[in-house]
Recover the amino acids of this structure.
């Protein structure tokens, strides 16, 4: 098992999503001898926004790119290579303002590349990242599971499926900002879901 763990909290320390993703990674490593783990922490190493310069760099032919453009493309090439090399993906995904964090969105914008991780064919879009299992660890201050407010699970499933990753499991840690009791309940619930996912 080659695991890629993406931490996307803005917090480089103390993030519940990171802690729970770590627990999941440790359990997967322990239960699959010889497994490897690559960690990409977007709080420590944030990926830049897909702005106009980054888009132009991508659309410029390789041999015509300036050094700055080549560096920009190489940064996302690295993220894509990490993903291609993994068969198991753990994404730690906190809720910020009812959406994913900007850090996670920037990572998604970097790894979603036409002709590389997906392509359009006669039958529509085709994901090129096949044979991978994804686990998405959802952390939130409130409780939103299975409500209209929870667009993150649908979005993450949609984008992962689009890229060819059809096996997606969610682990929920909710109510984390609703007092100590709710917080412990939310963490215990997530830990139980991790046990189930690993089993
Ligand atoms: C900028 C910001 C926005 C947030 N927005 C929401 C929100 O819309 N809904 C919610 O339930 N919790 C929200 N929270 C609470 C976080 O989801 C919660 O603190 C969670 O633990 C963050 O994940 P982390 O511990 O992995 O950093 C927000 C927190 C921050 C810092």
């Amino acid at each position: 098992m080659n695991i890629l763990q993406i931490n996307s909290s803005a917090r480089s320390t103390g993030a519940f999503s990171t802690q729970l993703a770590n627990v999941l990674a440790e359990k997967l490593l322990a239960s699959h001898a010889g497994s490897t783990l690559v960690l990409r922490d977007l709080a420590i190493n944030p990926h830049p926004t897909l702005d106009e310069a980054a888009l132009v760099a991508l659309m410029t032919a390789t041999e015509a790119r300036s050094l700055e453009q080549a560096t920009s493309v190489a940064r996302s090439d690295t993220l894509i290579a990490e993903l291609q090399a993994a068969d198991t993906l753990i994404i730690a995904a906190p809720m910020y303002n009812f959406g994913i964090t900007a850090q996670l969105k920037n990572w998604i914008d970097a790894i979603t590349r036409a002709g590389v991780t997906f392509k359009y064919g006669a039958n529509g879009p085709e994901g090129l990242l096949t044979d991978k299992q994804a686990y998405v660890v959802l952390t939130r201050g409130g409780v939103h599971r299975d409500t209209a407010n929870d667009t993150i699970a649908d979005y993450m499933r949609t984008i992962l499926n689009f890229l060819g990753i059809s096996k997606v499991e969610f682990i929920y840690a909710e109510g984390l900002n609703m007092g100590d009791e709710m917080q412990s309940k939310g963490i215990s619930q997530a830990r139980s879901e991790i046990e189930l996912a690993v089993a």
Remarks:
- The chain has a mean pLDDT of 97.
- The CA atoms of residues 58 and 73 lie 6 Å apart.
- The chain has one domain: 2-198.
- The chain is about 40% helix and 20% strand.
